Structure formats: structure tokens, C-alpha cells
Amino acid sequence: MLPASQSPPSTIGAAKVDILLAVCNGEKYIKKQLDSLLQQSHENWCLLIRDDRSNDNSVDILSAYSKKHPERIKLFRGRSRLGACQNFNWLLQQSSSDYVMFCDQDDIWLPDKIKLSLETMQRTEKNHPDLPVLVHTDLKIIDENDKIITDSFWKAIKLNPDDRRVLDLLGTSNTNGNTILMNRKLARIINSIPRQAIMHDWWSAIVAAQFGLIIPLKKATVLYRQHSKNAVGAISILRRLPQTHRYLYNIYIQIREFEKNYNLRYSIPKIYFYKIFNLSKNYLTI
């Protein structure tokens, strides 16, 4: 692992970003995602990819891109399958840049995604230089053929990005990992995402809410693809009802792990109250 940076750069152009891309059987859309990264207006980035034992042509595609852009794209091939959350966690351990972004294999990044997120991040850091910060954005939803379904994921599922209290986020995730930019201070506090975490982005948001700041950028920066193989997608509350019991149990396990990791204690009934309250505001989702 490379040595950690000591302080953030002073300008947007100088800011180095590690983009973490967890891949598993992504051959169908991965080229479009990689091309969208190469077309970013902010060019100071390094892409760290870990293939999670794909059995399609993903590795061949990724290898071709990494050979063509060896200074920017680094490919790691997993020896065992970790699953999405721990695949991202493994990549987080390899990262050392001042800023970190998560990237999904089947989306398309809009050209100014990194630039806009960095501008928001560095404005926040100027006012709060000692705090861990997480910036996240809205998304446009596209289908399997790149057709835009809706211009705002947040509006489509009635998500309120201003719900940023830890009590809100312990029960309900409202940040999408494929839009997240975090600074090194937050990455250090996260350190390692436990296996009890439901997803890497949810855990990261809880840590940011507890110890720092979450800043929503109310602009879509990603074309968020919805298809039959999404690990997590724009799924309505009504469609999730059959899995509600297991889902609530997993939330409970995640909360207890968070308490243990950071020597904290929360009221589970209060968290579930906030979750029910938040769900009641958007029960008519798509």
C-alpha cells in the first residue's frame, strides 16, 4: 500500500482522486463505464479495479484498458470471491490519495462528475478543515439501452438528501455509493468496512454522519443503470416488503457492529422509529 497523503491539495486541478471499481461479471457494460472515466474533465485520477472472480470476459476487457493506460488504471485479480461490499473494502485498503470515489461497473459517469464533486468537497473543507467529509450527488436513471427513465433518482424514490443525522442514516441509507466522494480524513476513520456492514456506501455514510459532514450535491452526475442484475437498485418500498423481516435484522446487526467499532450506543427503538417515519414519507415510490 502506498504511503498516505499528509494534507489535501490546495487546488481542484492538483487534487488526486482514487476511483475504486469493484467488478464481477461486468462485461456487458464495463466498456461504457471505463470510457466515461477516461472522458472526465478532471484528469488527475487513478482507477483501482479488483475483479471478484468473474467468469465472463470482464478480465480480458479490463486487462486491455489497463495495458493501454498503465499510468491510470491498475487491475487486481481476486483469489476468492468477496462480494460487492468487501470487494470495495479491499480496494479501499489499497487507496492512499487525498480523495476516494466508489464506482459501479454498469453505470456511466457524466463528464464533470469528479470536477463538481471536488469543488463541493473543497469548499466544505475550506470552512471545516479538520472534519471528515462525504459528498454525494443525485443520479439520472437509465435502462439497459442507455435510455433515460428519470432525470432525478432522488425525486423518483422521494429520497430526502437533507436527512443527514446519524439516527436517520443508521436505519435508512440515502447515499448512493456510485456518487460518493470522501476525503482522506473520512477514509482513515472508516479504516476497514466490516463484514456485518450491509453495503460499503451505507457504512461510509453512517461514519460520516457520526464524525463529520455529509454534503449532498443536488445535481445528477451519474447515469445510473437499472437492470435485472443490479446488486442494489431503485427498488420501491412496496417491492421490498417480502424481505422486510430479514432486512430489519441486517440493519440491527449493522448497528451493533457500528457501536462496537466506535464504542458508541444507540437506542434501537428510536432508530426504527426514524426509519418508519422516513419510509412513511416515500411509500409511493416507483
Structural notes for this entry:
Helix 7 (184-190) crosses helix 8 (200-211). This protein is globular. Strand 6 and strand 7 (148-150) form a beta hairpin. The chain has one domain: Spore Coat Polysaccharide Biosynthesis Protein SpsA, Chain A. 39% of the residues lie in helices and 19% in strands. Strands 1, 2, 3, 4, 5, 6, 7, 8 and 9 form a nine-stranded mixed β-sheet that branches. By secondary structure, it is α/β, with parallel strands linked by helices. Residues 1-10 have low confidence and may be disordered. The chain has helices at 30-38, 58-68, 84-94, 113-127, 153-156, 166-171, 184-190, 200-211, 237-240, 244-262, 268-280, and strands spanning 17-23, 45-51, 73-77, 99-103, 108-109, 133-142, 148-150, 181-183, 213-225.
Task: Specify the number of helices.
Answer: 11
Radius of gyration, taken over Cα atoms and rounded to an integer in Å: 18 Å
Helix content: 25-40%
> What is the 3D shape?
globular
What does the average pLDDT come to? 90
Count of DSSP E strands? 9
- The CATH superfamily appears as Spore Coat Polysaccharide Biosynthesis Protein SpsA, Chain A
Poorly predicted ranges: 1-10
Structural class by helix and strand composition? alpha/beta
Question: What is the CATH-assigned architecture?
Answer: Alpha-Beta Complex
CATH class: Alpha Beta
